[in-house]
Amino acid sequence: MKIEPIVKGVVARSAHPLGCKQAILNQIKAVDSANDVLDQSILPKRVLVLGGSSGFGLASRIALAFGAAQADTISVSYEKGPSDKGVGTAGWYNNIYFKQSAQQAHRKAININGDAFAQDIRKQVIQAIKEEFDGQVDLIIYSLATGARPGANGELWRSAIKPIGESLTGASITFDSEQWLESTLAPATEQEIYETQKVMGGEDWANWIDELINADVIAKGAQSIAFSYIGPSSTHATYHQGTLGRAKVDLHQTSHAINLKLAPFAGSAYAVVCKALVTKASVYIPTFAPYVIALYKAMKEQGVHETPIEQMIRLFNAHLYPSPRVDQERLIRIDDLELNPRVQTRVDQILSELTKHNFKLLGDYKGFKQEFMQLNGFEIEGVDYEHEFDLEQLIALGVQ
Ligand code: NAI
What we know:
Blueprint: E1 7-8, E2 11-12, H1 17-32, E3 46-50, H2 55-66, E4 72-77, H3 90-104, E5 109-113, H4 119-132, E6 137-142, E7 148-150, E8 156-158, E9 168-173, E10 180-185, H5 190-200, H6 203-214, E11 218-228, H7 243-262, E12 268-273, H8 288-301, H9 308-319, E13 332-333, H10 336-339, H11 341-353, H12 359-362, H13 365-375, H14 391-397
Parallel strand pairs: 3-4, 3-6, 4-5, 6-11, 11-12, 12-13
Antiparallel strand pairs: 1-2, 7-8, 9-10
Helix pairs in contact: 1-2, 1-3, 2-9, 5-7, 6-7, 8-11
C-alpha cells in the first residue's frame, strides 16, 4: 500500500514512515552543520526526555545525541503503532528512526512508549536509568504536551484553552478544507483554569523530579528544563493571560522549586521560553494560526525564522551551556528573535490586514501548512511517496 496524507481539521490521521525517517536525518544534518564549540566535559551525557517523540522534545533529543554532548538518551512518549486500524503516528516512526541513527552513531537510545503520568511507566524509566545509565541521569527534559492528565486517585483533569475574564473572538485555520473559521471562546471557569494548570502546569514535572530523587538516580550537577511560551502582547488574550498562560506561570514557579530540590546535587532547573512553532500540540490553540502565519512571514522576510531543531541547537550551544543565561525572572529566553520589535511591528501590520479572503497570500500559510505536513512525514524532499508498504513489515519495524 502507498501511504497518503489523511488530515481532519488540524489533526493528522496518517504519517509517512520514510518521510519521518528523512525528517530525523534532516535534523541530524542541521545539528552536524551547527558551529558547536562547547567543551564536552560540561555537557550532559545521560539524558531523559519526557515527550521525546516530536516537537521540542524530539529536537532536544537529536541536538544532544548528535551534537557535542553525544548523549545517550531515554525518551518517554505516547504514540500509536501501525495496526489494521491505521498506519500509526509520526512520533512512533520518529522513535524508531531516531533509535536507528543513534545506534549507528554508538549512542544508547531507549524508547519507552506509554503514559508518562502512569506509575508503571515511571518505574520503567527508573529501571532503565539504573540499567543503561549506570544509575544516574544528568539532564531531565520535560516536554509533554497533552490535553488530559490522570490523577493518582482516579481523577482526570482536562485542559481547556480559553481566555480568562472576557470572551475572545478569533480565527482558526483547518488544513483539510483550508478554511478560516471565526469563533468566539467563552471565558474559562475557575474549574477550567484549575484543570489546565493541573495538566500543563509544573506539578507533574515536580513529581517526576521527586520520584527520581527518591530513586537515588540524580547525578551530581544534574539539570532539568521544561518548555514555556509567553509571546507578544497581540497573543496575550489567547495565551499568556488565558488558561495556558496561567499554567505556564505555574511552570515557571515550579522551575524555582525544582531548582531548590536539585541544589543538594549542585544541580539546577529552568523554564525555557521558546518561539511559537507549528507542532502537533500548538495547532490546536484557537486563534494561534493567524498569528503564526503572520509571524512566519515576518521572520522569514527578516531571515530569522527558526525550526524546533534550530531553537534547540541555540538553546544548548549558547543559552544553557556553557552556563545558563537567564532573565530577571530566571527564565531562559530563546523567544528573543520572535519578540524583536522589528519582527513584531511587521507581524502587527500583517495581522491588521489579514482576513479570511487573503490569509493565503498575506501570511505564510504555505510555510505553516508545509511544516504541519512535514511533522507527519509528508512534503519532504527526497522521499519516495510512491513506495509500497507492507503492514506486517511496518509492524515488525517497531519490535526491532
Ligand atoms: P508535541 O505535541 O510535538 O510533543 C508532545 C510530546 O509529549 C510527544 O512526544 C508526545 O508523545 C508526548 N506525550 C503527550 N502525552 C503524553 C503522555 N501522557 N505520556 C507520554 N508522553 C506523552 O508538543 P510541543 O509543541 O513540542 O510541546 C512541548 C512543550 O513545548 C509544551 O510544554 C509546550 O507548551 C511547549 N512549547 C511549545 C511551543 C509551540 O509553539 N509548539 C512554544 C513554546 C513552548
